[in-house]
Please model this.
Amino acid sequence: MPLHGESRKLLGGFESARVVHVGRERNVKADRLANRAIDEKSSSPG
Model:
């Protein structure tokens, strides 16, 4: 499932939620963690 769709599905479990775009250049640590998670997910079997 693409990340956008997965995010929307998970957010549906909350009474309210807000998503705000923060550019990579303004949040290097989060970008690094997101890339690591994507890499780990794509290298996992199944």
Residues 20-46 form one domain.
